[in-house]
Amino acid sequence: MVPLGAPELVRDGALVTVRGHEHLCLIRSGQDWSDTEADERRMYLEDVEPVLRAGMDFLRDDGRAIGCFANRYAVVETAEGRPTEKSYGMSWWRSLAALERWAESHPTHVAIFGAAMKYLSTLGPAAKLKLYHEVTVARADEQLFEYLGCHDRTGLLRAG
């Protein structure tokens, strides 16, 4: 799953298509605290979520230097636009190896992992917080990224 090539931007007026490279990596990490109650919810929102947000902000603003092309941290909303008690981070990486390096040793992820482990070790099996990770490594022909009238720091436009 070694990355081959580099993302390429193709411009056609206001439309920009990003042609990804072989083995681009996508991770989506979710948090669902809707089943938590008073103390557990407070612990997640005060001790874990701010550390997670700081890591997501780092990836969004400065991740390019470590192989993260784009990162978005979002709160899931209802159909009416009201926030729910679920969030997720989604980021595109140059490679699975770059993602793994960040996860195992970068101070921002070490802090996220430490806060989560403290939370989970405090609550043990009684924890009601749900966490998940989905990782995909995509071939170049499985990727399509199109941007219309977007600024050059939008999504994968930063990768080109």
Please tell me about this protein's structure.
- With 160 residues, the protein is of the alpha+beta class.
- The chain has one domain (25-140): Alpha-Beta Plaits, CATH 3.30.70.
- The protein has 3 helices and 7 strands.
- It has helices at residues 38-62, 96-105, 107-123, and strands at residues 8-12, 15-19, 24-32, 68-77, 83-93, 130-138, 145-148.
- The strands form 2 sheets. The protein has a 4-stranded antiparallel sheet. It has a 3-stranded antiparallel sheet with strand order 1-2-7, with no helix packed on it.
- Helix 1 (38-62) packs antiparallel against helix 3.
- The mean pLDDT is 96.
User: Based on CA inertia axes, which overall geometry fits?
Assistant: globular
Query: Which strand order do you get reading across the main beta sheet?
Result: 4-5-3-6
By DSSP (H or I, 4+ residues per run), the number of helices equals 3
Intertermini distance: 20 Å
Question: What's the main sheet like?
Answer: 4 strands, antiparallel
Question: Total strand count, please?
Answer: 7
Proportion in β-strands: 25-35%
Poorly predicted runs of 5 or more residues: none
Named CATH topology: Alpha-Beta Plaits
CATH class: Alpha Beta
Question: From the helix content, strand content and strand pairing, which structural class follows?
Answer: alpha+beta
Question: H/E series, N to C?
Answer: EEEHEEHHEE
Can you give keywords for this protein?
160 residues; alpha+beta; Alpha-Beta Plaits; 3-stranded antiparallel β-sheet; 3 helices
